[in-house]
Amino acid sequence: MSEPAPPLSRLPTLGEDGAVRVVIETPKGSPNKYAYSEAFNAFQFKMVLPEGMSFPYDFGMIPSTKGADGDPLDILVVMDAPVFPGCVLEARLLGVIEAEQKERDGSWERNDRLVGVAVKARTHAHVEALSNLRPGMLDEVEAFFAQYNQLAGKDFKVLRRGDAEAAFALIRGGADAFGQAEG
Q: Which of the residues in the chain have pLDDT under 70?
């Protein structure tokens, strides 16, 4: 008899050919925010965004990582059409939006957003770096996260944008932090 599969949050971090494994939590176009709960081994409904607001791209996590906020690292995935919560895919890292958010208690916490493109995307197959994205796209994404956090009573401040190597450095650090938390 084979062993049961690990929870989605504990899947291997890396896929093939340098791609990262991603578990989608909230699909593009959804006004509902979902997050994976390892305790329930299911996706939990977190909140409804205000009328007219929705996630601009598929949003998920990098399994077997731990960010500064204690959660798996976040990633926004650009692809041809939205997928569903729980879909596992591989993405090519484009870069990172390094950011902090001010919590309700007044403390600032890092909460970076990795940006990738689905390995099997067709429309965006040519995208190799943040600079290949359409003009203004990252400004819109940053504005979305600022508004999203503001509605949750938090401030969101972009520190800088980093390239794919900066994104991989965050993933290596997040994988190390996850391993230390497990050990």
A: 1, 183
Among 64, 66, 61, 69, smallest CA distance to 91 is for 61
Alpha helix (H) ranges present in the chain? 137-151, 164-182
Per-residue pLDDT at 180: 86
For the chain, the structural domain boundaries read 8-169
What's the confidence (pLDDT) of residue 158?
96
Share of the chain residues as helix, strand and coil, in percent rounded to the nearest 5: 20, 35, 45
Distance (Å, rounded) from C-alpha 166 to C-alpha 169? 5
The pLDDT tens digits of the residues spanning 112-158 come to 999 999 999 899 889 999 999 999 999 999 999 999 888 888 899 99
Burial of 150 (0-12, 13-18, 19+ CB in 10 A): exposed
Which residues, in sequence order, are CB contacts of 132 under 8 Å at separation 6+? Answer: 94, 126
Task: Note whether 111 and 101 are within 8 A (CB).
Answer: yes
Helices and strands (H and E) in the chain: how many: 2, 9
CATH number of 8-169: 3.90.80.10
